[in-house]
Amino acid sequence: MTQTADSDKHRAVLGTKKMSEVQRYDVQGFINSLRLDNLKPASVHLERALLRTVFNYARIGWQWSELADNPATHLKMPKVDNARGRVLSEDEQGGVGAGLEDC
Predict the structure, then answer these.
(1) pLDDT category, 23, cuts 50, 70, 90?
(2) Ramachandran angles phi, psi of 74, nearest 5°
(3) Residue burial 16-47, b: 16+ Cβ < 10 Å; e: rest
(4) Residue 41 in contact with residue 81, Cβ under 8 Å?
(5) pLDDT per residue over 29-80, tens digit each?
(6) Minimal CB count within 10 Å: which of 10, 34, 48, 97?
(7) The whole model's pTM is what?
(8) How far apart are CA 29 and CA 34, in angstroms?
């Protein structure tokens, strides 16, 4: 519970503000707190994606003119480097081929 205390605090602040009052620096503070709580960059990007979706839906779906800009965009984000250097083994490749033949 204490491992994510900082980001939980920022999440609570964002959750209690009116959507039209949320500023880019509020969201950036939340993103920074996620990094301080040792979340992986891909997880931080997923958190931001959720916020972007919510604000985009309010702006476009509800045609909410008070939200002139999406505060979850144009943020300083950590670089995601989750490239894989693995290839299938011969056994795995044979299993995939057998599975495709069964289809």
Answers:
(1) very high
(2) 60, 45
(3) eeeeeebeeebbbbbbbbbbebebeeeebbeb
(4) yes
(5) 999 999 999 899 999 999 999 999 999 999 888 888 877 789 999 999 999 8
(6) 97
(7) 0.72
(8) 9
